[in-house]
Please model this.
Amino acid sequence: MSIQLCANQRFKAAASAAALSGKGMRVTVIEGPAGSGKSLMAAYLASAVLCENEKTRPCGVCRACRLAEAGIHPDVIRPEKDKKTVVSVDAIKDLRRDAYVRPTVGREKIYLFENAEYLNAEGQNALLKLLEEPPEGVRFILLASSRSLLLPTVLSRATLFTAESVPPEEALAFLRARFPDREESLVKTAVRLSAGVLGRALEILSGDGGEREKALSYLKTAARRDEFALYKASDALSRDPSSDPRLFLDALRELLLLSAMDAAGLGYAGEDTVPRFGKEKAAALADVCSGIRRWLDVNVAPAAVYTGLSASFASLLEA
Model:
């Protein structure tokens, strides 16, 4: 099998069994943070369902498996978002009609919602009828950062999976094979910083973790409770042409959630990684990041985004 899906043994067994029997997992919800492997899990399930091998699914070598793995199988359909914010009710209505059209080349059709949180309550309700009684040969996969973002009525019709944290030993073996020329100390550091989320480790070792480093530096400034220094950091970010406010806010939120988990005794965030703010404060700051990020959807200038972020952080940290 060419899809390297670490951990998640229960999911892999269930996907293969459902594909071979043709039963179960008609509606599947997979939750987990960014980089946790949700998309790989979806590709694994799609490959298993569409695989042309009658004995072992997914086989990883047939045409259907290779297309599904590459994300270009014509029967894996990704509903488009309206204005990059929500999947509109009109799009759901089009999907409901399309669901009764036969697959293009495969035995089944799969509708993959890669960010199911973009389905607002109205869109989820419009989808419910299909989820209750999916047409023959149609499956739905919904990926979300948390199942709490989906309606209980949707969840009640789905098989639920949480992307599992990758054990350090398994992550280390995977990364050593992926980055054979990297120093062992760097690989081990990436494993530790990733807290079981392999995508984070890949980002760090791929050299694409610039925003994460900026976010960590910003948090260390915030931890000093120095409002002036916080505004200086925002000004520097707004003047940095390489800074991407969306990626920065995403990285900032992930680090704060790590800090909250550490405070709750659920994960590691040491002195050299994430400053400690306490569980409630870290969670509140993470919520601020989510709220500020929505400003970018209405074209607020990055300079105003960074300034607003610092003002919100300063206010929360003083409380």
